[in-house]
Structure formats: C-alpha cells, structure tokens
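Me: I hope this is not a bother. Any chance you could explain this protein sequence and its structure tokens? It all follows right here:
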Amino acid sequence: MPDRLPPLTALRAFDAAARHMSFARAADEIGVTPAALSFQIKSLEDHLGQPLFHRLNRAVELTEAGRALAPGAAEGFRALQTAWRAARRVKNDKTLTVTAGPAFTARWMAPRFYEFARAHPEIELRFSASLRMMDFQRDEIDVAIRFGHGPDPDLYALPLAFEWVTPVMLPELADRYPTPDSLRDAPLLVDDSLDFVTPPCDWAAWFRAVGLDHEPVGAPHFSQADHAVDAALAGAGIALGRRALVIKDLHEGRLVAPYGIALKPQAHFRFLCPKGAEDRPAITAFRDWMLSEIDKTAAVSDTLTIIACEEVPSD
C-alpha cells in the first residue's frame, strides 16, 4: 500500500460525503455532479486498496476504514481553512478586527474610535465585544484587548496603562458627600465584574484603605462594569469606577473623584496579537493610536494616591 497521500480533491470529496452521508448533498456542497464525486471517492478507495463506504439502495454508510479516515480528514480541512484565512490576513491591511470585553468596548473604544478612523481612513475597524476566549486564527481576530493577570504564552503582549479603582460620582453628589466617612450614608453602586481579582479591590477594601470599616449592604449590584458607570452618570449613586471605563468622564468633568485615593488591582489590560503580527502596519497603527489615547488622559491618574490592593490590610 503506497504511503503517499492521495489527491486533495479526492479527500475533499470523501470529507463532504462522510459529513453528509449522501453523495448527492456532498456533490452539491463542493459544486460537482454526483457522478464526478462518486468517481473521486472510487479513486480514493483504489488508492487505499479497500472501500470507504457501503453503498446501500438509498443511502451510504462508512466502512471501518471510512470511520478511521473521517475524523482526520475533517480536522485536516478545518486546519487548512484556518491557515488559509490566516495567510490571507497577513496581506490584508484594509481590515482590522479587534476583540475586547463589552464594557471596554462600550466605555473606551466606542467614544474614541472615530479618531482612529479619521487618522486612518484606509483601515476598516471591526469590533467583536466578547469575554469569550478567542482563537486568533479560527475566529479571524487581529488584536485582543484583555483584562486579567496573564501570562500570555506564545502571544505578543503589551501591558497597557495600569488599572485603578476609585469612587466616582456626579459633581453635585460630591458636594453632598464631601468625605469618605460621609459615604456610609451614600447610595453606593457595586460592580461585580472585578470579583475574580485577588486580593479583592472592592468597596470594603477601599474603605479600609482610607481607615474606615464599612461595606455596602443592600446596594444594587451590576455584573457589567459599564452599567455601574452608566448608573453613576445618571445620578443613581456612587460607583467604584475602573480607570479605563471612567477616565474620559473624569477628564471631561462629567464625573469627579473627590477623595484622591485609588486602589490598584494586580490584574491589568494587555494588547495581544500573535507573535510576529505586531509589525503589521494596521496593527502597529492601532497600537500606537491606543497608546496615544491613553496618554491624553494620563494626568488624571497623577491626581490620585494609588495604593496596591495587596497592601491594604485584610479583615
């Protein structure tokens, strides 16, 4: 039995027939006649030296050899399709697909991306707002912005500005609650999206950092950080705002952070792409633009005393 692989067209015909269990539907999928598909499969069987299908009156069934070949053939064609898409993207600097979490997309990307579009009209940005772990090749993603602890093996990973959290509110609420101690009677909003971070960077930790023992009871909880920020912008209460999601509102005066104390979690945002892809012109342009946008509001962080969460005494 020869070790050389059979023609790819014959394997493709077999893969389609094995998935559909129908020569007619398989032929329709790959755009040939049923007779042509049957000929390809017959040539594959001749190459193998044994049948791959039992031909029944109105159906086909895989033989033992067919069942052995089908999974590998399917996996092989999926890998080829993935590799082909990746190879095409290497030369495609007209489109850039970026994935980030829903909150980061809504609060950081959406208010700013028109600046990138104006500076780079030749690049079409596409956003995929998701917390799902993505495969760069399978999901055709060029850049991922992710928040967490890392590490990120086999990827180009650039840490973005470090994150912090601090109480944020409308200016009129700051007049009503002028000190950290007065927050005991304030309508506090709880963002649960940082619950995975250790050590915790929550309201209880922030109060301990300013020398108080208090934890919100009966406060509304939000699973998405941007929803908590939206509630603060609507005047519904005071949120423990995350830097990336509130810094533009602080910079432009819609929100204020009157107490000057912020907590820094160990987790941080990273700019991720496959190693080697960081030098692609579109990815380089997007990375440089992000860094310049971060720099525009960097002065806000300079107004805060930032304490690492791990340095806050625990209960």
In short: The first strand starts at residue 53 and ends at 55. The chain is about 40% helix and 20% strand. The mean pLDDT is 91. Residues 165-267+298-311 form a domain with the D-Maltodextrin-Binding Protein; domain 2 fold (CATH 3.40.190.10).
